[in-house]
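Quick start: what a row looks like.
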Amino acid sequence: MPRDVLVLSTTAPQPVDLVEAGAGIAPDLRVRTLEGGAVTEIVDRRGDAVLSVQVPELVENAAEVARLAPWASVDAPVWWTEAWVPWGAAGDVGVEIVRAFAAAFDAQVLVEDGS
C-alpha cells in the first residue's frame, strides 16, 4: 500500500511542472500516463512507479478544505492534487520529486508519514 501525498495550491499545477521536477531529481526516470491521462506517473527503468499524481481538482468550498486539510494555510478556492509514493527508497525519490513539483507553483504538501 503506498503512502498518500496531498498537494494544495492556489494555482493549477501543470504536467510540465511534474516532468521538470522529476528530471531535476532523477533524470533516468520516465513519465507515463494511465486511465486516459487521469494519472501521471514517474517510473523507473523497470516500469515501477516512484510517484503517481492524479489530475488536480478545484475545491471552492473553504469549509471542506478546512475539514479535510486542517493543517493547510491556503484559502479556497484551492487546487487539490492527490498523489501516491511507495514506501522505501523508491518512495523517498518520489517524495523528493513531489516536493520539487509543489515548489514550482508555491504549493503546500502533506506526506502520509507526517512530513
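That is the whole record. The mean pLDDT is 91. The domain at 3-111 is CATH 3.30.70 (Alpha-Beta Plaits).
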